[in-house]
Amino acid sequence: VAAAITAFLQREIDGASNEEDRASLQVAQDCLHQVYRFSSQNVKDSVRLEDVIEANGSEEDKAQLQQEADEWKLKGNGLIREQKYQEAYDAYTEAIRLVESAVYFGNRSAACISMKRFEEAIADGKRAIELDPTYAKAFVRIGQAHLGLNQKTEALAAYKQALAVEPSNQSFQSRVEQLQAEVGDEAGEEEKEESEQQQEQQPNSAPPFDIGGMLGGLLGGNQQGGGIDFQALMSNPAVMGMAQSFMQNPNMQNLFQNMEQPQQGQAEEGEQEHDSTDEGPVVEEA
């Protein structure tokens, strides 16, 4: 088109009656050449701009172009059935060159999927949607291409859009339900793996010691401790500081842990017995 316009401007320059008009037309021609970088041969081989304008204004010519494009599409469909995918791609490209149609882009997207050119398939699917937002098959092509790239979340979104266009399509509904289940399962597995990794990265640490509670437990809950007022003793900051230093000794920690384990074990067994009598279902049944 740019070459055709340049050729048109050259004809105008040649026919200009004064120098000022020729200079203005030359500036326009130079600007086109700087942007598009076509050769003099391109200009020479270009169609006449007047002919293009006239053809676009003719309904008969438009019908002729549409007929030729449909013939290329039918040829591409036949090549798809023969599994000649690159030749089918080329046929659909010829159809698109004549007339841009959502169906042609959708069919070329299918050819790309068959050749595992998934990024191209997505691009063609999106172009088809731009031309016709109600073309459900374009969303399906995008979904299939995302599945080819193992992008299930994106595929699910595409199939949902196809279902929104055709809510009664059982094939789309089944695909959406299948992908929802798969995406949900994968998300659960990822959360489980992430949780396990976090647990592995956390250093093992001993639980904090409750000095007052531990001494009280060892004395059987007797706060007086044979004449010693442990409650008053534990409220003394100096005594608590000494006790904390004392309990930070690893040997003393092990000693107190060994003394407490029998009592804790009995309590845990009792709790487990109680919990086992009140179990609910793991998941709700629909």
Question: How would you describe the overall organization of this protein?
Answer:
There is one protein chain. The chain has 286 residues and is mostly helical. 77% of the residues lie in helices and 0% in strands. It is built from 15 helices and no strands. The chain has helices spanning 2-15, 19-36, 40-45, 49-56, 59-81, 85-98, 102-114, 118-131, 136-148, 152-165, 170-201, 211-218, 230-234, 237-247, 250-276. α6 runs antiparallel to α7 and α9 packs antiparallel against α10 (152-165). The longest helix is centred in the middle third of the chain and has 32 residues, at 170-201. The radius of gyration is 40 Å and the shape is elongated. The two termini are 62 Å apart. Residues 221-226 and 262-286 have low confidence and may be disordered.
Can you give me a brief rundown of this structure?
The protein is 77% helix and 0% strand. The protein contains 15 helices and no strands.
List keywords for this structure.
286 residues, 77% helix, 15 helices, mainly alpha, elongated
Number of helices: 15
State the end-to-end CA separation.
62 Å
Structural class: mainly alpha
* Rg from Cα: 40 Å
As a percent range, the share of helical residues equals over 70%
| Spans where pLDDT lies below 50 across 5 or more residues | 221-226, 262-286
Mean pLDDT: 77
**Overall spatial form:** elongated
Biggest sheet architecture: none
Can you count the beta strands? 0
Quaternary state of this entry equals single chain
Strand content: under 5%
What is the string of helix and strand elements?
Answer: HHHHHHHHHHHHHHH
